[in-house]
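Dear Dr. L.,

I hope this message finds you well. Following up on our conversation about the binding site, I have prepared a predicted three-dimensional model of the protein together with calcium ion. For your records, I am including the exact sequence and ligand specification that went into the calculation, followed by the structure tokens. Please feel free to forward this to your student if that is useful.
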Amino acid sequence: MVRASFKSKLFAMTFGVINFCAIAIVALTITEQGRLFKYNARADLSALSHNTAEELVKHLAFGTTDELAVTTYLLKFEVYQNIKSTHVYDRHAKLVAQYLNPNYFSSQPQPVQQMAPDQKFHLGLFEDNNQLRLVTQIGDENLKLGYLVVVLDFSKQLQDSENIFYAQLLPMILAVLVITFILAHWLQTGLIRPLIELNTLVNKVQDTSDYSLRVETHGDDEISQLGSNLNQMLRTIDQQHLENQAHTKALEQQQKNLEYLANYDQLTKLPNRKLFQELLKQELSRIGRHHTELAVMFIDLDDFKTVNDTLGHHAGDLLLKGVSERIREQLRDCDILARLGGDEFVIVATGLKEEIEAVVIADRILEQFNTIFNIDKWQVSSGLSIGIAFSDGNKIDLQSIISNADLAMYRAKQSGRGRYAIYEDEMQSNQHRRLMIVNQLNNALNHNEFELYYQPKVCPTRGVTSLEALIRWNSKFDGFISPGEFIPIAEHCGKVHEITRWVLVRGFAEAEKLMLNQDIKLGISFNISAHDIAKDGFVDYITALLAVHKIAPSSIEFEVTESSYIENFERANLFFEKIIALGCQIALDDFGTGYSSLSYLTQINAHTLKIDQQFIRKMFDSKRERLIVDAIISLAKNLNLKICAEGVETKQQFDYLADSDCDLIQGYYFEKPVPFNQINTTIERINQQFGFSQHS
Ligand code: C2E
Ligand code: CA
Ligand code: CA
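The resulting structure of the complex is given below.
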């Protein structure tokens, strides 16, 4: 629209200006022509009148008027087409003769134009109605002979002249119009088109944001220059735009990467803890509306650390990936699987109609872990424990359901790995009890609430040869707390090493007393945990204790559970070597409860292998169970390890183990752990009761 109006404006302007000029020139020319014509007519008229007046002098002189001569003379005016009339008056203003042009007057005699006697002639030229009337005096001032009045009509002549002029002008006007039109058109197309193209381009760029558009430029006038400048500007913008786009793209990518890093686990590509919490929050708010149930399932790999430490981090990573894939395969699309870190995963199972659906999922997942993982060249078995907590409609909040699932998972771990546990309120109180124990442990150390009990280990041929020191805690607040309960908690909260040191200080002192009094050589075993092995200066501590007490290092034994040394095999073996260098003994406690013990057995420096209670307990349940015990014993024998069976409660068990060439037997069959002051009587009783001769 703007374009059209500008175009038409310019067209109208060009056309109008040129036409106005043309019309003005024509009008001026006509006016000027009229003026010139009149000027010439006046000059001609005065020359003619003057000559005529001169000529008439002779006919009017001497007082006699030769009317005929004058009339004849006036006939010469016939040649002048535009002289309308000529009148000659004598000095008394009496008409002498007249000439009337037949073109103006009819052939009928015309009334004679007489002047009144007293009328005076006004000399001069008068113009009136396209007529010139020249009144000239005949004779001079001193001798006035008469008057000559000539009337010249120039209207017709003027008209003719104008007509001729117009006739010549018309083609010219037409030519001007055509030229004007052509000129305007040329202006429009030739001059304005580039401008219009520029304008079109600018609009197009504005509409499409396509900065790669260009305008075609011709010539080197200002508009072309403007076009080139615009092109140059667009080129710069385009370049800048592309750079900006690339930059923005890079920024967006960076932003995406950051978001990804912030929300996803790099290894498994699963949502991380942060995103998991956000997603769970959304799901929790949704179940309120949909009346469905939601389950949070905490998953913890059972022996991941072992894989990581023994096969290396790369294998650990591959296992985690494999695990995450296996879990994912068992889930529905709507379920969320996230990695919380380390070997912890979590599932949010949504849209459950019944709680059993979550249990089915857990069962399916556990089943998947019966199959071995092929990691590089290794075959790795991995188990997991699952804790399940339900949303109970929408009554539960985010933190509660998470901590419930965590508690249930902890329970699953405690009650034997490779299983699931569903959260129950009782677990909450369990958790409180754990917290209470954590809080009380410091008190216990400071207020001497611990005590050591000793359980005899009996050699089937020689009687009691050694004792296992077992800690007891009689808490002021909660009475007796079993080491089976508080030791794992102390391990968990990093308190166990302090306890171990307390046990060793007390144990070494009591052992010294015992040996001095008894004058017999009794072995004493102490339980130590993985945390002790990892503690710097622990061997030095033991060395110092040995130096202080009069105890033969060979009578001191350290019982280390399988999981403790497998957690960091290298370090454990180094520790064992140092302990052995001191002259002390190493026993592998709870043997058979772990998974990979057999493969390590040939590489580890130990003296004794303690078969775990569970094998002894089940020994007579089936032949198969018995075969396991047989296998462990023969394995130990082949590896030159002493064997100790613990948890022996019946004569049947004792007889079988004694017959199987078991080196040491420990259990309620002989005696429960007893306080220090009962050791002597206990040993005596056992030896007597079971008919052992006094041992050396
Ligand atoms: P453990 O090292 O396997 O100790 C054997 C456990 O079995 C002891 O339980 C003992 O009383 C019990 N026991 C022995 N014979 C029988 C039997 O015939 N039948 C049954 N049912 N149980 C029997 P206790 O003293 O409650 O200790 C439990 C666990 O606590 C120990 O298992 C050990 O792992 C840990 N523990 C005990 N004292 C210490 C300690 O001083 N330091 C460390 N680090 N751990 C300790
Ligand atoms: Ca033990
Ligand atoms: Ca044990």
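In brief: The pocket of C2E (ligand 1) is lined by residues 455, 469-471, 482-484, 487, 500, 503, 527-529, 559, 589-590, 646-649, 666-668, 673 (CB under 6 Å).

With kind regards,
A. P.
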